[in-house]
Amino acid sequence: MKRMLIWGAFALGLSACGPTSPSAAQQGNAGAPHPTAPAPALVSPLSAAFAQKVANSNAFEIEASTVALQQATQPAVREFGRAVAAERQASAQALARVIPTAQLAAVQLDARQEMHLNTLRSAPSDQFDRAFLDSNIAEHRDIVRTFQEFVSAAPETPLRQWAQRTLPLLEQRLERAEALKQST
């Protein structure tokens, strides 16, 4: 996973290093940026790693929630899965507005996320709801910690501002998942 994040950050840095000299734009090269278009923002390795982890987490939660919509036995768990999927799709769209997805490496789930998805897909129906909530709680604890660390370490950027605004929502979602687990 670390290697993938390092390569993702490296690729991100390279993608941000397009032609920036005025002569390239003035010469009318087809691949050169439009003279009035803003230059692509350079993203720090810290921001790139954070954005990649968030994108991967969003993809995992959307997939796990899709499984929950099909297999959850309790209506409250199904509804929670629907809400999580919608929230994570909104998160993915908001992240794309702050850091274009072209600057991120392809989404790839880590070994823990793959294991959770396999567990969910093969869980007996009488154990699915608890397995889904356990998985959701573990993922939310991890992503909340990731957001907290990023907000405390990152310089003031639009990505940090978004992370700071999003963190309380993630903490609330974690509380909802924990409460739902207690009631099931």
Question: What is the structure about, briefly put?
Answer:
By secondary structure, this protein is mainly alpha-helical. It has helices at 2-15, 22-26, 45-71, 75-98, 111-122, 125-153, 158-183. Helix content is 74%, strand content 0%.
Description:
- α3 packs antiparallel against α4, α3 packs parallel to α5 and α3 packs antiparallel against α6.
- The chain has seven helices and no strands.
- It has 184 residues and is an all-alpha fold.
- It has a single domain, classed as Ferritin, core subunit, four-helix bundle (Ferritin, Up-down Bundle), CATH 1.20.1260.
- It is elongated.
- The N terminus is likely disordered.
Helical fraction: over 70%
User: What is the straight-line distance between the termini?
Assistant: 34 Å
Instruction: Find the count of extended strands (DSSP E, 2+ residues).
Output: 0
Structural class: mainly alpha
The CATH class assignment is Mainly Alpha
**CATH architecture call:** Up-down Bundle
Number of helices: 7
Shape label: elongated
Series of secondary-structure elements, N-terminal to C-terminal: HHHHHHH
Low-pLDDT segments: 1-40
Alpha-carbon Rg, integer: 19 Å
Name the quaternary structure: single chain
Q: What proportion of the residues form beta strands (DSSP E)?
A: under 5%
For the record, the count of structural domains works out to 1
CATH topology, by name, is Ferritin
- Could you state the CATH homologous superfamily? Ferritin, core subunit, four-helix bundle
Mean pLDDT: 82
**Biggest pleated sheet:** none
